[in-house]
Amino acid sequence: GLGKSTLVNTLFNTSLYPPKERKQPSLDFAPKTVSIQGISADIEENGVRLRLTVVDTPGFGDFVNNDDSWKPIVENIEQRFDAYLDAENKVNRMNIVDNRVHACVYFIQPTGHSLKPLDVEVMRRLHTRVNLIPVIAKSDTLTDDEIASFKQRILADIQHHNIRIFEGPRYELDDEETVAENNEIMSKVPFAVVGANTDVQTPEGRKVRGRRYPWGVIEVDNEEHCDFVKLRQMLIRTHMEELKEHTNNFLYENYRSDKLTSMGVAQDPSVFKEVNPAV
After folding, report:
1. Domain 4-19+28-195+228-261 listed as CATH 3.40.50.300
2. Per-residue pLDDT tens for 41-71?
3. Which long-range contacts link 215-218 to residues 24+ away (Cβ below 8 Å)?
């Protein structure tokens, strides 16, 4: 696998996914479709309690024919949009529960070459529905030079295929520190990540979250070793609200508009214009 479960547990300091048992090879036929699984947990960040839901896609990319493997994922995202739209149209809209997907952490195999055709196809299908955040999985299998070259190829592929990935918005009133922080985070995309749920000891005797190899220790929380810290910073600290706002104001609004138009519901564009009450 690509270490999705391990990385999610590492990101949120929780055991959302218990350790997997090693299963004996089975002669049973594997399922032919991607399944969708949602797991929720409460996490605390800087004294603030957050309700986190991770929507996993076991089986994605594992089949002989992966042509339509994106369909269950897009359908799930759209079903969540539909549920929110239904709730918006009810008389009592006071307690709308927002179960929309606000970010898709897209795992890319550490091949060191370029995006696979499947990755290009799936990302093209997803980018109009969800904030795409590409990550290079298990980046400790690549050297620093290989990671740098791989990142350039991935970004070139993304640009060539007109795939929109999430970019932190820039505001006129942002101070220099905020601008620098945002630029630093975005410069790491696609994030080269390593996950680890156990502590290991460094040669100097420090206990760190990481992985031990014959040649040394990879520290998950050391920014010189991987981009894990910046990915976590973006998801939980600096860009959480922006991810939600872009989902609501752009991705969902476009879907909602197209949906209502297809149903023959006329819309007044002025409804969506921002109005300055002082004028």
Report:
1. yes
2. 787 777 778 888 888 887 676 665 677 888 8
3. 218/140, 218/194
**Angle at alpha carbon of residue 242, lines to 88 and 219, rounded to 5°:** 130
The answer on pLDDT for 192 being more than 90 is yes
Cα distance between residue 109 and residue 116, in whole Å: 9
Helix axes 71-88, 117-126, angle to 10 degrees: 10
Token pair belonging to 57: 């896609």
Q: Which residue has the tokens 């605390």?
A: 44
Contact 184, 190 (CB under 8 A): no
Q: Does residue 26 have a pLDDT over 80?
A: no
pTM of the model: 0.85
> In a 10 Å sphere around its CB, with 0-12 CB exposed, 13-18 middle and 19+ buried, how is residue 182 labelled?
buried
Q: Going by DSSP bridges, is the β-strand pair 191-192/199-201 parallel, antiparallel, or unpaired?
A: unpaired
Q: What's the pLDDT tens digit per position in 100-123?
A: 999 999 999 999 999 999 999 999
pLDDT in tens, 66-100: 778 888 899 999 999 999 999 998 877 778 889 99
Q: What is the mean pLDDT of residues 4-21?
A: 75
